[in-house]
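User: Here's a chain of 223 residues. Predict its fold as tokens.
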Amino acid sequence: MKKILIIEDEKKIRRFLQLELEHEGYSVHTAEDGAEGFEKFQKDYYDLILLDLMLPKLSGEEVCRKIREVSEIPIIILTAKDQILNKVELLDMGADDYLTKPFEIEELFARMRVALRNKKNFENKNFIVYGSLKLDTKGKKLYKNDDEIYLTKKEYNLFYLLLVNKEIVVSREKILEEVWGFDYEGEEKIVDVYINSLRKKIDEGNEKYIHTARGFGYILKRE
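Assistant: Prediction complete.
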């Protein structure tokens, strides 16, 4: 069963699309703003994304570009008629196709079938490479110089969060929310424990990746 992520802030449209796609046999997840949509993309595996352009918190353009930095997943833009971008802008953004609202649901189904059929085997290319490190986001495995490094589930999720935000400081609060969840009630020191574990597995000699931003959080940066 193909899994689809709908990122759309209009509740009626989001619900309509979800019901129609589920009726066609797709597994559907939804997000009501750009930030939530990107977070869901980071945490799960999807076959295709339907992305509105005019979104709160994080625009559709920003979401598309951020996704394209790490994945070749097919993206179909859903946009109002007066927001149509030209083909060059869409390609620059990283979109595979677009539809203007309102649209016929059968046309959307057809475009989805084409996008899924023509996707660039992104499942087999779903690797993020940074220095000597390579993360297999489908197999959830980490390699260093082609040697596998064993990670626990929490270690993998923590490293993935740092990697997709590479060279940007990630706060302890953000790490706790993303890796342990909003309802986590334990101590913040758990983050330091897992960071130290990752360092022992990843850092070697003069090759350091995980650095402390004192009083704030951590950053993944090659040094």
